[in-house]
Amino acid sequence: MRNIRKLLFTLIFMMSVTAVYSYNLVKADTINITVSSDSSEYGKITGVDIQNALDRAMEDSNNEYIITVPKGTYMLSRGLHIYSNTTLNLQGVVIKHPGTGIGAMIQVGYPRRETGKSTSKGGGYTAGKYSRGKNININGGTFDAGSNSVEDVSTLFTFSHVEKLKITGTKFVYKPNEWDNAHMIEFGAAKDVLIKKCEFIANGKVDEAIQIESARKGVSHSDLMGKEDGTPTINVKIEGCRFVNFIYGLGTNHGIDKDVYKGMVIKNNEFEKIEKYAICVYNFDAVISGNKIKGKKRSFESYILKLGKRNNLKLTNNFLK
Question: Environment class of residue 153 by beta-carbon count within 10 Å: exposed (0-12), middle (13-18) or buried (19+)?
């Protein structure tokens, strides 16, 4: 009996050592990449070089990638794709839209190349839940879509089926020559999102700066982000941002009753030259606090569009400038 107990103890010890060793084998490394012209076939940094650096994370998702782009102005020839466990540092960087249809300037993953059978009208979108990307940070930079024709520009950033996403200190500029039903940022089926100290500048012809959606069938545009599996968008914080010259500022201006957006925080933002509504809520469980609006309406609440029957809003310290 004693020998059996000794044997069991030995086996348990060996299994624990093996488990620790296996964990160490897959422990992530932090890989720092500075994009340079040394490997560029053009002799200068281009959008292709930035994408080549981002693709490193696609090749090995176990590591953490910190990609830094040197200060300068860069013209895209195609939209950028960013993957899990990636930090993209863009301080002092201006990225311009080429004036031709390239899709989003940045998109999480490469949805049209996803494996599996797609049932989405958008085509090729099969990642569900929050599985398309996680642990993604974008720091600084200016994304300038210029004054191009609306046929040439779509939403600047598209994120769907993602979690743990941060965009900090980034500026977005788009001044189309006619009204465009586009957004600076559009995301759905997203969890744990922080958009902080960003600036959104338009010319009164852009529909909305930040559009928040679910991935539920029947919600407008959800088929373009697929998979329409009902994954909710929750825990979104938009803080310390500035919105200038939009029809709508941010939020959800269409949806269905099944959707409830939990854990929403809209805090310490500034709105100026907003034609209709600064904040649109559709079944939001939200804290809306410390926001300022420069406008002609009579009250702060007159700038909030309330849709749906299940809004739970905590409004504190908001005022007109």
Answer: buried
Residue 193: half-sphere exposure toward Cβ, Cα within 13 Å: 27
Any domain includes 39: yes
Domain that holds residue 169: 29-320
Give domain status of residue 51, yes or no: yes
pLDDT band at 141 (very low <50, low <70, confident <90, very high): very high
Nearest to 193 by CA among 170, 218, 159: 159
Lowest mean pLDDT among 14-23, 133-142, 200-209, 218-227: 14-23
Q: What percent of the chain has pLDDT over 70?
A: 85
| 68-72, 153-157, 197-201: the lowest-pLDDT one | 153-157
The domain tally of the chain equals 1
Reply yes or no on whether the pLDDT at 318 is more than 60.
yes
Give the mean model confidence (pLDDT) for residues 285-291: 98
Distance CA 213, CA 11 (A): 51
Longest dimension (CA), the chain: 86
C-alpha torsion 225→227→232→238, nearest 10: -20
Amino acid identity for residue 246 in this structure = F
124 backbone dihedrals φ, ψ, rounded to 5°:
80, 0
DSSP strand pairing (80-82 vs 319-320): unpaired
* 270 phi and psi angles, rounded to 5 deg: -120, 135
CB 309 within 8 A of CB 282: no
CA-wise closest residue to 64 among 89, 24, 16, 31: 31
pTM for the structure as a whole: 0.88
The CATH number for 222's domain is 2.160.20.10
